[in-house]
Amino acid sequence: MADVFGMALLDYQKGQYTEDIKTFSSLDEEDSIPVPYLFRSFKEMPKLEQKALQLAKGKVLDVGCGAGNHALHLQNKGLDVTALDTSEGAITVCKERSIENTVKTDILDFSNETFDTILLLMNGIGLAGNLDNVGPFLKHLASLLHPNGQILLDSSDIIYMFEEDEDGGYWIPNNGKYYGEVTFTMEYKGIKSEPFDWVYLDFNTLQNACLYNGLECELLCEGEHYDYLARLTLKK
Questions:
Q1: 122-125: long-range contacts at Cβ-Cβ below 8 A with a sequence spacing of 24 or more?
Q2: Would the pLDDT of 160 be above 70?
Q3: Is the whole model's pTM more than 0.90, yes or no?
Q4: Domain boundaries defined on the chain
């Protein structure tokens, strides 16, 4: 499977940035991910990400670390951070940016270590793929937490992408799927990724999933566009 994301990160890191990553989704939307944005500094991050980094403490696992912006910021603050991603290119870039601890693996294959803070930023809960997988995904993350540890994640309620009717309701396709489930394909320099599933969770759905899987779920703050930051902790 082509590491489209990693290729784009490596090009930028080498000073060879010429184009952005195109994304195609099952919501019939074509969009792009500006590659420079994947190398943003703390000052350039949305307030939800800044807040999460301010709350990070102790030993930290940055899941889906990408180019390592979050890990680098925390490492520079003196925290013990592990940057984890499935992308070979992303991990190479993290190493080149002097991130000390990196792991190239799927989070579900990672175990035998525990953390005070697990970061799932840029809608990292999306890695669960679909609503059915959210419970097992959360259980696995909980197994990586110290007893007083925290999971900090941001996500979005993508209800706004559906047509609104006159009484304020939304026309959501009745296909038996949760409306936050999306299938994406990425393209960079003419090379396409395999399609992959991603899930955006509204806060109530996240809260219910936590309830069933032994986690407390707290809404920390809301962003400007249907997005939010939540903290998950083990039930006492």
A1: 122/49, 122/64, 122/66, 122/154, 123/153, 123/154, 123/155, 123/156, 123/198, 123/200, 124/63, 124/64, 124/153, 124/154, 125/153, 125/155, 125/199, 125/201, 125/206
A2: no
A3: yes
A4: 45-181+200-234
